Each structure stands twice: as C-alpha cells, then as structure tokens.
Amino acid sequence: METKRVFLIILDSLGIGALPDAAEYGDQGANTLKSIRNSKAFFAPNLKELGLFNIKGTDGGVDMPKGAFCRMKEASKGKDTIIGHWEICGIVSERPMPTYPDGFPREVTEAFTALTGKEILCNLPYSGTEVIKDYGEEHLKTGKLIVYTSADSVFQIAAHEELVPLEELYTYCETARKLLHGEHGVGRVIARPFVGSAGSFTRTANRRDYALKPPVPTVLDRISGEGMQVKAVGKINDIFAGSGITESYKTHGNAEGMEITSRIQQEDFHGLCFVNLVDFDMIYGHRRDVDGYAGAISEFDEWLGGFMKEMKPHDVLIISGDHGCDPGYTHTDHTREYTPLLIYGDGIKAVDLGEGESFSLIGNTVCGLLGIPHCGGSFTDKLIKDI
After folding, report:
1. What was the pLDDT predicted at 152?
2. Which of 61, 153, 357, 368 would bridge with 380, disulfide CB 3.0–4.6 Å?
3. In a domain, 293, yes or no
4. How far is CA 348 from the centre of its chain?
5. Looking at residue 146, which CATH number applies to its domain?
6. CA–CA separation, 384 vs 368, rounded Å?
7. pTM, rounded to two decimals
8. Are 296 and 219 part of one and the same domain?
9. Which one, of 332, 210, 235, lies nearest residue 12 by Cα?
10. Which residues contact 167 (CB under 8 A, 6 or more apart)?
11. Residue 122: in which H helix or E strand, if any?
12. Domain harbouring 241, CATH code
C-alpha cells in the first residue's frame, strides 16, 4: 500500500536504557523509561499495544503488538537534541558539538560584547530557573545580559522582557549565532526571556532557538525537493534552521503540539508531519520530576489513542526519541540511551525489527515509505505488508 502521509513524533528525551558507551558520558545505568514506569502516574496502554514493552531491553509486552518495534542506537558522538534529530534525518556527527563546563572563553565573550555593546553576567553552566533567581536582580540594576550554558552545546541569553524587549533580545541572539561557528559552533543559541520581580522571576513562553544550520542536505530536503510537504511542529524548524521545511508551527508545550498535530491530521497533504514534544525533556527530565514525566507520557498516550483512530489507510505513524533524560538519575543532564521506535499503519507489518544501528534508519524509512530514494539502509522492505 502506497504511503501518502507520515507522522513522525519525537518524544523528546524518552530513552529506554543506557547505550554501551554510556559510561564515557557519565550515564552508566541510565534508563528514562524504567524510572518513569515505576511511577503511579504512568499509564500507557496504547504505547504498550503498539509494542513499547516488546522492545529488546524492556519487559511486560503484549502477545500481539499492533506495530513494528525496535530499539535504536545513536551512532553520533553526543547526546543532545540537535545531534539526535540531525541523525534521524541522515547526519551522523563524528564528534560532539562544543560544550563549556567552565563557561565561554574570553575570546567569545569579548567578541559578543564588542558586537552588541552589552556586558554580560554569569557565564557558567546553570539551571535556567536558578540563573534568573541568582542574577535577575543584578541584570535589572545594571542592564547586563545573563549569558549561561549547560551540559548541552548551547549559548543562552536571559533578559527581562520589560528591560530588554523581545525583538532586541532576539537580535542579540542572532548576533551570537553569526559569531558562534567553527571551533565555537554551538548547536543552539537560545533566547530565554523572563518577567517578574526579585524573588519571583519566571521564564516566559517566548523562548526562541537559533540552531546551527545542517552542514549538508537532510531527509527533509529530499522530501520537500520531491514536491512533497514537510510540516514541522514544535522546535523542529529551529533544530534544522528551516532547511527543507515547507510549513512550521511553533508551540508552547506538549498540549499545543498534540492539538496542532491533530489539526494537521485532518488536512489533505502528501509528505511528512514532523513533531517534537519537548515537555518531557524541558519540564520534567531536566528537573528530575519522575511523576511529572510519567504523567506527561500518560497524557500523550491518551491523545495517541484518538489519533490512531483518526488515521487514514495511507497514513503511517512513527514514534521515537532523540536521546535520554532520566529524571531518576544522579544528574540533571541528558543521558546517553537507546531510544524506542514504534511504527504503525494499515499497510505496516507488526514485526520485531530488533536493533537499529543508527537513528538515520528512521529518516531513510520515511523516505522509503514515501517512495523517495534515500542514502543508506532503512526498514521499509521489512515493514510493507504483502498485497
């Protein structure tokens, strides 16, 4: 059966167990799914029926899964959002993007100040909520920008919306993005606006990401290059700097992302709807909120049941992750883990695909299902039902 529409949904940070090299990243024994599955808030019957717990390394699966399933191994060096998504779409990163555990070097900060005319505060790895608590008042008094990083390859700028208007903050981020390339080519520059007063500062939903442009064309370019549509929901457009994307829908969380995806499902289009649901990572994983993460998976699962019922005969649903972020682990950073892969549709065989050696198999499979030539291996031939 010819596939007309593919819905690729990334549950941001849903890892299912430490990769063999996890110890090199300080993540030995991490398992995001195991941590949240032990919570009373976890209830995911639809994911279970698709085959989530039939995947190698998990347990408690069903006798006859509805979908194809396997676990995916990350071939790239790293464990962040951009590297994971880029690999899904065909780019295997031979080395991690640069990180700054001691803050950015003087050559970077001085160049940023020279270009923007703004001095900076902090310049350390920091929690986003803690950094505005500790530096927000000084920022308001001095006008200096709060610049900080994390364990990820990010250059983040926090500023109070009443002191630094959003468009001005975005301009500073655009300047930083142009500055940070080559040796200091961080994966993302992120605008982190906040509001409130001392003791009660809160981040707003006006975050904006400025990603490094993919170095070569991706699966998204191949799909749109064939005249098909690539609809990006959530931070997908930011991750790929718009490359290969025909329509983009920004979201302010999982609920809006799922709502938009349901609306797109009612449209008549040919191509890919690529979705990132970020709350699992941003709100629950990094903040070590096991019950919150489990509850968010349960909410997704409830929505998923309705989405599956509305699928058309020529639709294919693919669910996966981009890395781990185990809320039950010993640190708050991403974790180097396998990710799940679930594939479902009327024309899809419910088979155990074993273990994928690279996330790039996902993008190649999307191309294969849509009848587009691709580079490298895919699962397509194993998935298509015999007519």
Report:
1. 84
2. 368
3. yes
4. 25
5. 3.30.70.1250
6. 10
7. 0.90
8. yes
9. 235
10. none
11. strand 120-125
12. 3.40.720.10
Is 91 in the same domain as 124?
Answer: no
R_g (Cα) of the chain, nearest Å: 21
Does 239 share its domain with 305?
A: yes
Tally of structural domains, the chain: 2
Domain membership of residue 90 as a residue range: 5-95+213-383
Judge whether 101 lies within some domain.
no
Task: State the pLDDT at residue 387.
Answer: 47
Residue 135 has which token pair?
A: 């530096």
Tokens encoding 328: 């039950």
Structure-block tokens of residue 104: 């950015």
Q: In which residue are the tokens 């064309």 written?
A: 217
Q: What are phi and psi of 308, to 5 degrees?
A: -65, -35
145 and 39 in a common domain: no
Q: Are residues 362 and 239 in the same domain?
A: yes
pLDDT at 43: 98
| Distance, C-alpha 152 to centroid of its chain | 13
List the one residue out of 294, 273, 284, 264 whose CA is nearest residue 370: 273
Question: What pLDDT was estimated at residue 147?
Answer: 98
Q: Helix axis angle, 81-88 relative to 360-369, nearest 10°?
A: 40
Q: Which of 160, 181, 211 is the last residue of a domain?
A: 211
Query: What sign does the CA torsion over 31, 292, 239, 270 have?
Result: positive
51: exposed, middle or buried (C-beta count within 10 Å: 0-12, 13-18, 19+)?
A: buried
Question: How many whole angstroms separate alpha carbon 378 and alpha carbon 375?
Answer: 9
201, 194 contact by CB (below 8 A): yes
Per-10-residue mean pLDDT of the chain, 387 residues long, equals: 92 98 96 97 98 97 97 95 95 91 97 98 94 97 97 94 98 97 93 96 91 93 97 95 96 96 98 97 94 98 98 97 97 95 96 97 97 88 79
Domain assignment present for residue 24? The answer is yes
How many residues are there in the chain? Answer: 387
Residue 58 φ/ψ region, left for φ over 0, alpha for ψ in the -120 to 50 degree band, beta for the rest: beta
Residues 224 and 276 occupy one common structural domain: yes
> Could you tell me if 325 and 346 are in contact, meaning their C-beta atoms sit under 8 angstroms apart?
no
Q: What is the 3-state secondary structure (H, E, C) of 118-159?
A: CCEEEEEECCHHHHHHHHHHHHHHHCCEEEEECCCCEEEEEE
Alpha carbons 260 and 204: distance in angstroms, whole number: 21
In a domain, 335, yes or no: yes
Q: What is the pLDDT of residue 1?
A: 63
- 70 shares a domain with 17: yes
